[in-house]
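Q: Can someone sanity-check these two? First one:
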Amino acid sequence: MTHTLPPQIMDLIGHYGDFGIFAAMFLESSFFPLPSELVVAAAGAIGLPLTAIVIFGSLGATLGAAVGYAIGRYAGLPVVLKFGKYVFITPARMAKAEAFAVKHGAWGVLLGRLLPIIPFKVFSIASGITRIPFFPFILFTFIGVGPRLYLLAVFGAFLMKYTKYAIIALAAALAVWGIVVLTRRFLPSKSA
């Protein structure tokens, strides 16, 4: 698990602890292409306290989301599309995030934070572009990231504690999936 992150990120988390989680989540939520799921799971895997991960991760993600919101609100869509490609923000992702933000408004922020459908930074920028009111945006961001961070940290701790069993379970799931795919592909269907 921890070998999948760049050593600089692991050093940031391991050496600076709570502040490292805060900084990593701030960067990921604002503009930097950093996989928050791996960062938080790695923090859980190396044994940082769950409460610290949730508190400092939520604060970092919320402040980073405010930066992303400001980018969307004040720079606008043309600038985001022009430079977004450098941080993996594609026009398709922006269109999906904008449509979601317009359809669900501030409540969509809460849903978007709880579910990993759209990356934090893309959704934050889209929220700024569509001018979702700032206070509900920040409030629902803070409320929404906590449960997600908790689950990811627990997942990371679980993987480190039960690595052998996790690998066996993953191998079994892949084997079952492979059997299902091969069966459907090579056995004739009964309707034929």
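And here is the second, same format, sequence then tokens:
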Amino acid sequence: MQKKFFLNLFFLFLTSWIFAQGLTCRSLQEALENPDSVTSLILKKQKLKEFPSEILQLRNLERLDISRNQINEIPKEISLLTKLHYINAAQNYLSSLPVEMASMQIDTLILWDNMIRKFDTSFANLPLKYLDLRAIQMTKKEQKAILGLFPRTRIRKDHACNCGDRKQ
């Protein structure tokens, strides 16, 4: 009897621990089967041309990887995902981010090989710890502005370019 009790207690603990860890999904279809349990969604190399609006149904999403797609815009509604703190959107066609993202709790933002060369000043409020902007051609002036906006953030970037007629 005591052995059965401890065995049930162990399975209850294990089930609770697994549920607390959240669910990592590698397809949108899989994520939508149990949207409240998804904490991590990996949609890299899916040939996405648009940000899938279904992602906005994943209210407990903490980590999003949409890298290596062809997305050119992230919708402002992403700010409704209040638990989202990690975004990997590398190797897309992004030229800006919605200003609504400035109110989020993002600590990691991976944007290398996009076209983003500036951020709205409201982004200074982000608790950003890591920002990856490699493979984005920026002048010294553009880089200096970003460094000034995020003084406590580890920023990875390439050397400034001598980009044509843009003044440095």
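A (reply): Looked at the second one. The chain has one domain: 25-156. The longest strand covers residues 38-42.
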